[in-house]
Amino acid sequence: MSGALRQAKIPARNVGVFVQAVDATRPTLAFNAGAPFNPASVMKLVTTDAALELLGPAFNWKTAAYTDGVLNDGVLVGDLGIKGSGDPKLVMENFWMFLRQIRARGIRDIRGNVVLDRSVFEENVYDPAQFDGDPQKPYNVGPDALLLNYKTVAIRFMPDEAGGLVNVVMEPPLSGYIVTAPRLSKEPACGDWQGKLQADVGVGAAVFNGAFPAVCGEKVWYIHPYRMSATQYFGAVLRQMWSELGGTISGKVMPGNVAPVARLLAEWQSPAVPEVIRDINKYSNNVMARQLLLTIGAQASQAPGSTVRGAQAIRGWLSAKGIGADELVIENGAGLSRNERIAPNTLGQVLVAAFHSPVMPEFIASMPLVGYDGTMRKRLRGESVAGQAHIKTGSLNDVRSIAGYVQAASGKMYVVVCLINHPNAPLGQPAQDALLQWVFEKG
Predict the structure, then answer these.
(1) What pLDDT is stored for residue 4 in this prediction?
(2) Is residue 1's pLDDT more than 90?
(3) Measured at the alpha carbon of residue 415, what is the angle toward residues 409 and 417, in degrees to the nearest 5?
């Protein structure tokens, strides 16, 4: 490992390492283990472990529909309220089934408004451009008590050379939203096809002023339509899907609180925490991790969820385990941050304690299996450690991090943490891979 770091020109002071057998009282290897590092996405391990223990493995999120009016022969004269609880996985197929429940209760035409109640989370101004100036990236979507389909659209470009045009399809379709296709280009290279499209994704239309090279073949671009508010996006999806189910909405789709006198009509329950954290850790889903932190805060304080309340709950949870974490900085719980900090020793202790938790199997199964899936599927595939370690990865421009568990050839289980903070951090991956292989062989 040290040779790989030298080759990458990463000074030892910019690396923190913690390795400990899960049944040991002291680490096998600790280097700069008490220093605070930016962990990038391995911070998700703290958030997801806390969620498993604080929320419980059976916890799920509920999205509820309420009526405030009179229902007669399929016509609701009054408002329909939809109250969210922060479901991180209210994807299109789940939302469609929820709307089917509402239709099955006899509602066809809504003559009032649809009121979106997000009161379970604290109202907050969120700037999707703050992290890296690229608000269109799906990972920059902010938390939302009624997060729908990660507030993302998938735009598929299908060149038709015979017709001399590009067919464009957007999922999910948004009611009243206009998509103007790009020109078809015959240039010989695909290259930066997204840049060539000259995209202008607005509130009511997506216009592609450039061209799409036919040589690219079919492509999909996942976009956060950040100029649309969460309410506008939810409303456009809702109107389209409700229309496809044979219904109409006469009023507005608007934010508000469900009336105290409103009656519960239907309820959708999300998957439980273990399935949610699997998506978060295997694929490093940032917006789902943010949802989790706010949910922890809401449940712990019985007040609207916020980052501050979530961070306080996690600090209290760590303290109860006897894990001192004075250096810990939690900004969003996802690691998509320049400010979050944790020491390798703190993260290592969290992982050692997690191994002895009743929910250990669910936690370990949420992490990528080295050489097989998630963000580790292409790493160490030809090495003997492949299939013998569950490792979460993290990466920012100047950060590369790994943390998780290695089952050594001896049969012993080890916690491994390696955090690198340096401009050459992207070159540090071979050193981290060497550490995993070393623990497997020598542990």
Answers:
(1) 87
(2) no
(3) 120
Count Cβ neighbours within 10 Å for each residue of 185-197 and write b for 16 or more, e otherwise. Answer: beeeeeeebeebb
Query: Residue 70 CB: number of other CB atoms within 10 A?
Result: 10
Distances (CA, A) of 17 to 8, 29, 391: 17, 7, 14
Is pTM beyond 0.90? Reply is yes
Partners of 166 in the β-ladder? 159
Tens of pLDDT along 357-381? 999 999 999 999 999 999 999 999 9
DSSP state string for 111-147: -S-EEEE-TTB------TTTTTS-TTSGGGPPP-TT-
- Please state, in angstroms and as integers, the Cα–Cα distance from residue 272 to each residue in 60, 279, 292, following that order: 5, 12, 12
Q: What share of the chain is helix, strand, coil (3-state, %, to 5)?
A: 35, 25, 40
N-term to C-term CA, the chain: 15
State the amino acid at position 115 in one-letter form. V
Fold match between domain 2-59+273-442 and domain 62-127+231-268: no
- The ranges assigned to domains in the chain are 2-59+273-442, 62-127+231-268, 153-223
- Report how far apart, in Å, the C-alpha atoms of 128 and of each of 82, 181, 201 are: 25, 26, 15
Mean pLDDT of 135-142: 97
Mean pLDDT of the chain: 97
The CATH code of domain 62-127+231-268 reads: 3.50.80.20
Q: What tens digit of pLDDT does each residue of 305-349 get? A: 999 999 999 999 999 999 999 999 999 999 999 999 999 999 999
3-state secondary structure of 63: strand
Residue appearing with tokens 């050489």: 371
Cβ–Cβ < 8 Å for 252, 246: no
The CATH number of the domain covering residues in 2-59+273-442: 3.40.710.10
